[in-house]
Amino acid sequence: MKRLYRPLFLLILMGIALSAFPQNESVTLFVNDGEKVVYRVAQDVTVQEGTVSDALQNVPGVKVDTEGNVTLRGVNTVEIWINDSPSHFDEEGQKSYLQQTPAAIIEQIEVMTNPSARYTSDTDTGIINIITGSRKQHTQSLNVSLQANTNPHISPRIAYLWSNEKVTFTANLKGTFTNTIKNSNGWSSSFDSVPNANNVMMLDSSNYTVFHSNDTTREYSLTALMKVDYKINGKNDFSAYFSINPSRTKSVSVNNTLRQEYIHEIGVYDYTITNRGNEGVLFGTAGAYFQHRFNDDGHNISINLSSDFDFGNVKHSEIREFSNHDNLNRDILKTDLFTDIGWDAKIDYNLPLAKTSDLYLGLHNNFHPDNNLETYDTLAPDGNRITDWLRSEHRYFNINQTEGLVIFQQRFGNFTLRPGITYGLIRVKARYLDTPEFNIVKFFPNWRPSLHLTYRTASMHNFYLSYTRRNTVDWVRNFTERINYSEESMSTGNPDLLPTTTDVFEGGWAKYWDSFGSVSVKGYYKNSKDNINTVTESIFSPIMGRTISISKPYNIGKYYDAGFEFNLTYRPNAMLNIRLDANIYDSFLKTEYKDETEENRMLCYNFRLNAWTKVLNKLELMGTAYYNSPTQTLYTLNQTAYGINCGLRADFFENRLSVLLNANDIFNWNKEDNNIFSPTYSSYSTNRTNSRYVSLEVIFKVL
Q: Count of CB atoms within 10 A of residue 620's CB?
């Protein structure tokens, strides 16, 4: 660990030393403020002719590819907020907004990789908050586009945007056809306890399995979104949105398996599993947002209500054909009906106490259900189907969370202090109509303190130190002891599970230049208590008459990631940047499992190099190379993806026609490996999807 942090300390000391030299104080495009890195777009004259997408390219750690997909530090689960509220855009709506909205109406862009308790985010990767200004002008655009790639994937789309000083209206309609092919292969081995010659119980191989599978999935979907933002007057804003996404998915999976049994049901079992799926799903969201400003100094109250619904009818038929055991052949039909409606409600109140201090209060509540009727039927020899009650279930799951938060911010010149705390209660509820003995209701207190300290010099050296606590409650099923049987394995929950508590400490230095770019170094320590991992091991099943694998979640004793990130952005102007992101960390876990101590440590790292430029305001060029080292959980080692992508975007006829060309995973390196090595079960699997493809999109701007 000393070797790991030595370069970090040297770079921070170098930053402190450099800050002693006088520099131009007019460089104010970037600044650290609390937990935010702020890019003052309104003061950057070089980007005023571009779009919000162009402006985002200049933010340290942020990348937007030619299709409009946003990543933050190489992760694409970042949330986009607008004016301190989640945007609620779908994927296509977000792309349209970023690529069509002029940068001239943006005041600033705020990036938070470790948000304080004021921001409740569905992702741990961060938030990008876009603050619009009072310079909004009348804008109208209608785009028609068609995207296709060699997977194949075909997607026509219509996007409309209209806005003036008071109203912004967006509408998107998109159809999609996708064909995905995935190939997997691997092996597994289970061990069972048997007596040796001295009648001492020893582990011995119970079975060994090799498999190869080929999966083909075809999806047809339609996505529609409408959103209205209405500036009622100088003190009141209102917005509402609605989206709907019907989809139909058809899949075929063929799995060839060869299993050798050594202890129970001794013999060789060679069989093929053919699974055909037909899924119809209707997903949608709706919500409204209202804000009242008491004055122009930040005194305001906001109400945010949102809901999502998910209705589905899923059918899967599975045929198992044995080459040498005809009596084991099976014809199974699984149906899954679900109706889920959830909500999220928030009230936030901001009160400036003085010119240099602010108080934030909030009350939040959310409800997320999972209601399913799953039925398994087996074809009997007489031609009738018999319900398999062992695998069928009728469940009502939900998680409900209520919390209040208090944040205080105080500025002392260029020094900002921002402490906060969130406290609430999380309720986990599971109800089975067919097996009520497994019903549960659990309550978990949830308190999350946070502290952010920042300091900036006149020459734009920025130093920050932050601490946040996060509590994560696992999904409902993992708290129930009801056993879920598949044909080859089973899984169960753990009623003794506790929420995972993660304390995150970050500290670093960043320097921004107007005519060069930026350099930043961050050290971090993420310590998780009661981190949840699923352990797979072997067990003899009297129902199946042999040894099979069983998966169960556990709280591991100690888990932490400690390391540092380095970011170098070369930005000689607003239309060119080259970015190197590097992350190296020590991953450590230690647990007491079945009276034995399991301890693992490994050095993990990932690198990403991005290059982006826009030539003559017409042609965008982009290239990305990335590599992620293996990562670990308890008894598991994963090799994640790496590859090279490149693309271009060209605009013609005064930007009325745009052509996007992308090559994804040029060398077809994108595959994933998974190793499990628990005391009684080991396995290896690798899978590769058709990730190497060339895509072409043509966008015609009608208005």
A: 23
In which residue are the tokens 């930005």 written? 571
Q: Can you give 376-397 as a three-state secondary structure string?
A: EEEECCCCCEEECCCCCEEEEE
Residue 678 near residue 666 (C-beta atoms within 8 A): no
Does the CA dihedral 56-62-67-69 come out positive or negative?
negative
pLDDT per position as a tens digit, 61-109: 777 776 677 877 656 678 888 877 777 666 666 776 787 677 877 889 9
**Vertex 53: Cα angle to 52 and 59 (nearest 5):** 90
How many whole angstroms separate alpha carbon 238 and alpha carbon 466? 33
Residue-averaged pLDDT of the chain: 85
- pLDDT value of residue 119: 65
Dihedral of alpha carbons 649, 652, 658, 662, sign: negative
Report how far residue 31's alpha carbon sits from residue 344's, in angstroms, rounded to the nearest whole number: 32
Residue 648 in this model has a pLDDT that exceeds 80: yes
Mean pLDDT in residue range 462-480: 91
Tell me the mean pLDDT in the region 455-461: 79
pLDDT tens digits for 297-306? 889 999 999 9
Q: Are 324 and 271 in contact (CB under 8 A)?
A: no
CB atoms within 10 A of CB 624: 20
Q: Strand, helix or coil at 677? A: strand
Q: Which two tokens stand for residue 131?
A: 């603050």
Q: Is 641 helix (H, G, I), strand (E, B) or coil?
A: coil
The count of residues in the chain is 703
Strand partners, 452: 418, 466
Burial tier of 165 (Cβ tally within 10 Å: 0-12, 13-18, 19+)? exposed
Please check whether residue 358 is in contact with residue 84, taking contact to mean a CB–CB distance below 8 angstroms. no
Please count the other Cβ atoms lying within 10 Å of the Cβ belonging to residue 174: 22
**Number of Cβ within a 10 Å radius of residue 311:** 15
CB-based burial label for 2 (10 Å; 0-12, 13-18, 19+): exposed
DSSP string, 674-686: EEEEETTEEEEEE
Please state the φ and ψ torsions of residue 416, each to the nearest 5 degrees: -125, 130
**CA-CA-CA-CA torsion sign (159, 164, 165, 166):** negative
Indicate if the pLDDT at residue 510 is higher than 90. no
Task: Kindly report the number of other CB atoms within 10 A of residue 702's CB atom.
Answer: 10
Q: Which residues pair with 248 in a beta bridge?
A: 220, 280
What the block records as the tokens of 512 is: 């921004």
Rounded to two decimals, what is the model's pTM? Answer: 0.80
Cα–Cα dist 333/319, whole Å? 9
Which of 26-40, 126-140, 375-389: highest mean pLDDT?
375-389
Q: Name 417's bridge partners.
A: 410, 453
Paired residues of 512 in beta bridges = 518
Terminal-residue alpha carbon distance, the chain = 58
- With contact defined as beta carbons under 8 Å apart, do 30 and 40 qualify? yes
Rounded to an integer, what distance in angstroms lies between the CA atom of residue 233 and that of residue 296?
A: 13
